[in-house]
Every structure is written in structure tokens, then in C-alpha cells.
Amino acid sequence: MPPPRATALQTPAAFVQAIVHAYTLRGLDAGRALRKAQITPRQARLPGGQVSASQFERLCAAAMQELDDEAPGWFRRPLPWGSYGMLARASISAPTLGVALKRWCRHHGLLTADVRLSLGEARGTATLAIDEHAPLPAALREFALLSLLRNAHGLACWLIDSRIALQAAAFPFAAPAHAAVYAQLFPGPLHFGAPRALLRFDAAYLAQPLRRDAAALDHMLRRALRVMVLPYRRDRLLVERVRQRLRAAGAHALTAEALAAQLAMSPRTLHRQLAAEGASLQALKDEQRRQHATELLLRTHQPLKKVAQAVGFRSDKSFIRAFRGWTGATPEELRRQGRA
């Protein structure tokens, strides 16, 4: 799978230099691949320079095919074209993301012994880590570790059709000159100079079912870069977390500020992330109140005034008006229909 780009628009020249170095290790010239990508030698060498994402995508595709190595120069043994697609196919039939990632890590070990990917879980936190068992080429180490983690994270998000929010991303090297790139690739707390490369995220994601099939995988593999690079907008776990907290609060309506504090984010971030997946806090609140009200109407004989108070309304009139807007029926009509 193609390595990552820096942002939605630009890629550091340092990543281009890593590809060029892979050719150098083989005693080959990267000129043809650079020309295919329309990258000049000066662009490739320019300290602090950048190329476009499409240029870098073309460079990666050319290099991986010319070198027949999907991990260009990273490992002692090349990974032939199609290796990472094979790993994805071995994971697509898994029932949950946790099983899929464990398969990915295990099967990656069949491709190379130079690094070992592992998935661990402790105290509600999942850790996807890389242990280095053989020295990676110094000029390629950063790019290799970054790409391995970004590819795994991007594929995981795609498999469950959900943005997997990162609690931490750590790398065993000093912050590079292009460290700002990492905030785009790994949104969340970043740590450099760590003992090993890893990602941490809520272990609840591991229980999410896979929402893709083999046909979708075939289509995705034809243009894997967007999946591996662009952050996922949908976060199924966030919506479920909001629902759980609203259910637990019951009649005690949570404000956006209180809810955001429970979720360790700002109110603005909460609203923005919910909107990105087509949801809103008010809609989720209405959903919870409607469900609670329906349950009380059908399972109890409480008068409407008490039902209204139980779901957070000050008067039964405002409750009746809201309930009709939610369901198209009045509370009395629903109660009669449910007991007919």
C-alpha cells in the first residue's frame, strides 16, 4: 500500500528523499520514477521542500513496481507487489476489528522478521506497536515506521467505517524538521523519543464489526492512498458514547459543556465531530428523550405530566408538542395503539 503523504495537499521532500534512497540501496537510479511523478531532482533535494500529494502518489506507485517492493528499502527482504493487499484480504473476513488487526499483525510477521507488529489491550486501551528486530536503514527508519502505523490505522478506520480517535502516537526518534506533518497524519497527542513506535486508542473500537466486504476491498486497493492518509470523518464510537451518557443522565439533561468534559474534548470539538458524521447533539438528545418517553408510555400507567417531567419537560403541553414532532402522534395516541 502506498506510504502516507503529509497533508491533504503537500508532502515533505524528506519523504521523496526516502524513496530515492531506496533506489540507491539497490544501486539503481530513481530518475525514471521521478520523471513519472514530474518531480525535478532539485525538488527532491530541497531541504524543507514539498511536492504535491498526487506527485508523491505517482512516485510511490512507480517505485514500488520498479523495485517490486511495497516496503521500498525498509527491510532486508523486499515485499513483492501485492503483499499488503494480501494482508488486507486475510483480514477482511474477521468478525471484529480486534480479530482483523491481530491477523494483520500475525501475517505481517510472515512477510518480514525485521519488525514485529503487535496488538495489546489493557485497562480499556488498545496499543498497536512496532518492535524492531533488525536495524532499519537509518535514512529510511522514520519513513518506514510512520508508514507502517499510518497504513494500519487507515485500514482499520476503513474496515469499520469509523474514525478511530487516537489517544497517543509515539515514535522512537527525535522530532524531525517536518514534525508538523505528524499532526495531520496522527491527530492526537504526539510523543517523540519514545522507546518504540505505537498508537493508542480506546479498546472499544476493537469490538466494532467490520463493515466492508471483499468486493469493497478490491475497489479500495485500486486507490489505497486516500484510505491510508485522509482522516476518517465518521466516528461510530463517539455517537455511541454520547448516547450512553445521555441514557445514564436520564432526566438530568447534560449540557454540551458537561458532556464534552466527560468525553475529554471541548464543546466545539464535540459539535464539530458529531456534525462531520451527520449527527448533532440536539438530535441525539431528542432521540434519547423520545425512546425514554415511549418506554414510559407503553410500560407504565404514569400520567402524562409525570412522563413529561421524567424526560425533562417542564409542562405536559410542551412535551405533547415535542412528541408529536418526533413521532407524528400524540402521547395518548401512542399509548392507545400500544395497548390495542
Beta-strand segment tally: 7
β content, as a range? 5-15%
The helix content is 40-55%
Number of domains: 2
Order of strands across the main sheet: 3-4-7-5-6
Distance between the termini: 59 Å
Overall pLDDT score:
87
N-to-C SSE string, H for helix and E for strand: EHHHEHHHEEHEHEEHHHHHHHHH
Unreliable sequence segments: 1-8
Largest sheet: 5 strands, mixed
Q: What overall geometry do the principal axes of the alpha carbons give?
A: elongated
Count of helical regions: 17
Class of secondary structure makeup: alpha+beta
Radius of gyration: 25 Å
Structure description:
With 340 residues, the protein is an alpha+beta fold. It is built from 17 helices and 7 strands. A 5-stranded mixed sheet has the order 3-4-7-5-6. Strand 5 (166-171), helix 8 (180-185) and strand 6 (190-192) form a beta-alpha-beta unit. It is elongated and about 85 Å long.
Provide a compact summary of the structure.
The protein is 53% helix and 11% strand. The chain has 17 helices and seven strands.
Features:
340 residues, alpha+beta, five-stranded mixed sheet, 53% helix, 11% strand, two-stranded antiparallel sheet, Arc Repressor Mutant, subunit A, 7 strands
List the helices and strands and how they pair.
Layout: E1 10-12, H1 13-25, H2 31-36, H3 41-45, E2 50-52, H4 53-67, H5 83-91, H6 97-111, E3 115-122, E4 125-132, H7 141-160, E5 166-171, H8 180-185, E6 190-192, E7 197-202, H9 214-222, H10 224-229, H11 236-249, H12 256-262, H13 267-276, H14 281-299, H15 304-310, H16 316-327, H17 331-338
Parallel strand pairs: 5-6
Antiparallel strand pairs: 1-2, 3-4, 4-7, 5-7
Helix pairs in contact: 5-6, 6-7, 11-14, 12-13, 14-15, 15-16
